[in-house]
């Protein structure tokens, strides 16, 4: 197997999780809209805000990775939902579904040999697909850890 394919396979494993931390599906499974909108003492965000932030950021990174006409959203206003809770269970479920589908799209980009992992995007400032895939994995790991802690603090996580 060539080194490029080895790297792609390792990136996929990193994106999927399950090596140093549980996969995204484990942390997001069974969350109710009620719990997603609750706050914990001294924390400025809710589970809903973290999930929607992850979804938005992932789709922003996907857009940047595929679109030469990319326009950067406003930071931080566009990246974080203002609402503390989802409008409904359906809204939460759709957000989680969209996040999972976005992850599958990032994995497809990484697996596709037609996409050079190392070549800088012409519309960026040195970023490439390798960097963007690692950024997604790092960003998700950080926020999934926050979600797990919040679920524990809210009594919604079995140890």
Automatic annotation (TrEMBL):
SUPFAM superfamilies, per the entry: DinB/YfiT-like putative metalloenzymes
Domain of life, source organism: Bacteria
InterPro entries linked: DinB-like, DinB/YfiT-like
UniProt xrefs under Pfam families: DinB_2
Residue ranges occupied by any DinB-like domain in the UniProt entry: 20-147
Protein name: DinB family protein
Organism of origin: Pontibacter aquaedesilientis
Organism phylogeny: Bacteria, Pseudomonadati, Bacteroidota, Cytophagia, Cytophagales
């Amino acid at each position: 197997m060539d080194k490029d394919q080895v790297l792609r396979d390792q990136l996929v494993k990193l994106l999927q999780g399950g090596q140093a931390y549980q996969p995204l599906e484990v942390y997001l499974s069974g969350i109710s809209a009620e719990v997603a909108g609750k706050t914990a003492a001294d924390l400025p965000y809710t589970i809903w805000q973290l999930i929607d932030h992850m979804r938005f950021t992932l789709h922003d990174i996907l857009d940047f990775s595929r679109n030469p006409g990319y326009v950067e959203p406003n930071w931080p206003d566009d990246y974080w939902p203002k609402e503390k809770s989802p409008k409904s269970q359906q809204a939460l479920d759709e957000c989680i579904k969209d996040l999972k589908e976005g992850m599958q799209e990032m994995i497809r980009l990484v697996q596709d040999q037609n996409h050079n992992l190392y070549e800088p995007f012409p519309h960026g400032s040195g970023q490439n697909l390798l960097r963007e895939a690692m950024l997604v994995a790092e960003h998700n790991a950080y926020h999934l850890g926050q979600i797990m802690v919040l679920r524990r603090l809210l009594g919604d996580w079995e140890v």
